[in-house]
Design brief:
The protein is of the alpha+beta class. It folds into three domains: about 130 residues, Immunoglobulin-like; about 120 residues, Immunoglobulin-like (Sandwich), CATH 2.60.40.680; about 160 residues, no CATH class. The protein has eight helices and 25 strands. The strands form four sheets. Strands 1, 3, 5, 7, 8, 10, 11 and 13 form an eight-stranded mixed β-sheet that branches. Strands 15, 17, 19, 20, 22, 23 and 25 form a seven-stranded mixed β-sheet that branches. The N terminus is likely disordered.
């Protein structure tokens, strides 16, 4: 009997001793986050199994070389009291507003990323309390913040003719965390005008087009996870000859949680020409200033534009080449192939034609071949004619697909990709005819 009484007394004393501290499975947790350098990220301090919790206090430590605390914002427990230090922040809060919630946020910490790296977020000295003041020691789950390279907003260098239009994408690189953003693109309104803004990878944007600039805002999580995405597309129309910078300003991106991301910027430019035989050549060389492009322009002005068939050819070129040029810009291997197989031979031939001595020599050779070997000249002309016909037929077949099933830009991309093949086939046809009929 005495033994049982002793056990009861000891048990009662133990219960009295631990009465101020409740045993529960409350968990205070900080998750894993990622952000970009010079950007902010909001990190909530979450309490699980929080139905009896009316407040608490804790300290969060971090790597001060990577992160700094901008401010501490309210969660589910009213305005917190905070003490921000270089490598830690102390937070205390009390409110019955979250009583009954299984999951509640003690407070939100706004961190700013100062350099690339990974910082641990360690919770220390954490204690919670219920509405009666009972102290609760929770379990802890620490977190991390990974700081990576900031996204890059860029616009390339493009060309357009007077009274013609070109669509220029606003590209976001390192975009895996980006879910939208806003920016302003300014330009010279005397040279170009922004006609409209169309969607890229983030859904349909809101746009405000004014004289000299266009403001764009878009938000969608469609592109989260992509390394490169198009924020929006701007359709410009050339008004007068000249060059205008395309400057990106007031740019802010955001992740899917609404955190701001401040990107790096690479501006672009838009060259407006009266008429230019250089869309494909410019895309192939990567610049409108290459000396070979000047040769082609001279050929256009001095030869093609002097005859009706030449002017017709130039007009057809203007209407079909911009989509092909846009496709070339995106593929370095294709650009090299077009330079080697198409542009370089064309430039050599053009130089000979533009050179009076070379042209005179060609005329003499042509006359000699005509009078001395009519049959040979006929074979050569037939071979050239078949080669040109092969090019026309193959390109025509590609664009015929547009009338049957495919959109015009798709056909233009197809034509650009197989252009070296088309040239090679045409040359092969000419050589075959020469060998067979000579």
């Amino acid at each position: 009997m005495l033994y049982k009484f002793s056990i009861l007394v000891i048990t009662t004393l133990l219960l009295i001793t631990i009465a101020p501290v409740a045993s529960a499975n409350e968990i205070v947790s900080i998750g894993t986050y990622s952000t970009s350098i010079n950007s902010n990220v909001t990190v909530p301090i979450t309490i699980y199994n929080a139905s009896n919790i009316a407040g608490g206090s804790l300290k969060v430590s971090f790597d001060s070389s990577i992160l700094s605390v901008e401010e501490v914002k309210v969660g589910d427990f009213g305005s917190p009291v905070s003490n921000i230090k270089p490598s830690s922040v102390y937070i205390a809060t009390a409110s019955t507003a979250a009583i009954g919630k299984d999951k509640a946020i003690l407070a939100n910490i706004i961190f700013r990323a100062n350099k690339n790296g990974v910082s641990e977020l360690n919770i220390e000295n954490a204690s919670l309390n219920d509405e009666d003041g009972t102290i609760i020691i929770p379990d802890i789950t620490n977190g991390t913040i990974k700081v990576g390279t900031a996204p890059l907003l860029c616009m390339g260098d493009y060309e357009v003719n007077v009274n013609s239009e070109v669509t220029i994408p606003i590209i976001v690189k390192n975009a895996s965390n980006v879910a939208g953003g806003s920016l302003k693109v300014s330009f010279d309104p005397s040279i170009v005008n922004a006609e409209n803004v169309s969607s890229g990878d983030f859904g349909m944007p809101e746009a405000n087009i004014k004289e000299g600039y266009v403001y764009i805002a878009v938000a969608a999580a469609n592109s989260v996870g992509k390394n490169e995405a198009i924020l929006a597309n701007i359709n410009f129309k050339g008004l007068s000859e000249g060059n205008t910078p395309l400057n990106i300003g007031n740019a802010n991106l955001n992740d899917e949680n609404g955190n701001l991301i401040f990107p790096m910027i690479v501006n672009g430019s838009l060259e407006v020409n009266k008429k230019s035989l250089c869309f494909i050549a410019t895309a192939a060389y990567g610049t409108p200033l290459h000396e070979d492009i000047e040769v082609l322009r001279d050929f256009r002005d001095k030869v093609l534009m002097q005859t009706l068939p030449g002017r017709t050819l130039v007009t057809a070129y203007y209407s079909t080449s911009p989509p092909i040029a846009n496709a070339l810009r995106k593929n370095d291997g294709l650009r090299s192939a077009v330079r080697l197989l198409l542009i370089t031979p064309l430039v050599y031939l053009t130089k000979v034609i533009l050179n009076g001595i070379g042209l005179f020599a060609l005329v003499l050779l042509g006359l000699g071949a005509f009078f001395g070997a009519m049959r040979g000249l006929k074979v050569v002309l037939n071979a050239i004619g078949l080669g040109i016909s092969t090019i026309v037929v193959l390109i025509g077949a590609v664009f015929t697909l547009g009338w049957l099933a495919y959109a015009y830009p798709v056909c233009a991309v197809i034509a650009a990709c197989i252009l070296p093949i088309i040239i090679s086939v045409a040359v092969s046809v000419m050589i075959f005819v020469l060998i067979k009929k000579w």
